[in-house]
Structure prediction request, 311 residues.
Amino acid sequence: MVIKVDDLHIPVLLDEVIDNMNLKSNDIVVDCTLGFGGHSSRILSKINKGHLYAFDQDDEAIKYSDNRLNKICSNYTIIKSNFDNIKEELNKLGVNKVNCILFDLGVSSVQLDSDRGFTYMRNEKLDMRMDKEQKFSAIDVVNTYSYNDLVRIFFEYGESNFSKSIAKNIVKYREHKKIEYTSELVDIINSSTPKLLKKNPSKQIFQAIRIEVNHELDSLDKALDQAFDLIDVGGRILVISFHSLEDRIVKTKFNLKSNVDFIIKGNPNIDSSMLPKFRLVNKKPIVPSALELEKNSRSMSSKLRIIERIR
Ligand SMILES: C[S@@+](CC[C@H](N)C(=O)[O-])C[C@H]1O[C@@H](n2cnc3c(N)ncnc32)[C@H](O)[C@@H]1O
Prediction:
């Protein structure tokens, strides 16, 4: 059987991303989330005189994508690092300004389908690290976090209405046995929540633990600030988010960067240094079409926001 690339991970909002990047052949582009190279390979085919810098912290994704991109051309550099080091890593390579930066947040389908404990749908060892060299994993979260910290992450990152009862039962369970497998966690969640809920409660709890293990919100926050410094005039930053908290960070930062103070608005004598350096390309986020949703249910909660540097 021949496995097609798109059987591994279907890139989300691909046409919308490429159309909005406004790529020119000599552009310098950064893909902060290389994954299985869905976006990167399309980008690379458009910048044959430019260069693509692609970040990921997952060795398997890097190995696969290196092979995939190499078949297109050699104008790319893969950087194994958390994207919250974007500025330092690019500066080390002598890159101070770029034309486009893309973030396609979260995990890839391949990571979800791997045996690294990201999913509640199979019994695997609890793990959830994107970077296997990182020591801290889901095992540490469920076995060492206090009741209050568990409630906080389940409530904040998982938006679960059952945060307290699940946290209470985790603490009770681990008094007798360390929680090591996804099935143990799923059993605890099921025994802490009403039967026949519309949404599987494990989905929210697993997501919350994954966000905590990989410091996902903190990394996004840090990386966006660096992206604003790196992007050149006329360039764009594009972010695909899958979670309301991610989207809130992006929306808030983009609004702050592009906001025209009401005192400045309409005042012809204002010095241009006081005007915002960025403009929002789309006020409302771009979401997947009905056709994309039909083809790829994992695109369901995706939202694309874009900002452009104008001065
Ligand atoms: C949704 S996938 C990207 C898929 C990719 N756009 C494609 O079309 O194949 C997200 C990827 O970004 C990586 N990633 C997520 N957060 C990261 C971070 N903070 N630093 C580096 N890589 C990260 C994950 O390991 C994963 O491979």
Notes: The longest strand covers residues 231-241. The pocket of S-adenosylmethionine is lined by residues 9, 11, 33, 35-39, 55-58, 61, 82-84, 104, 106-108, 130, 219 (CB under 6 Å).
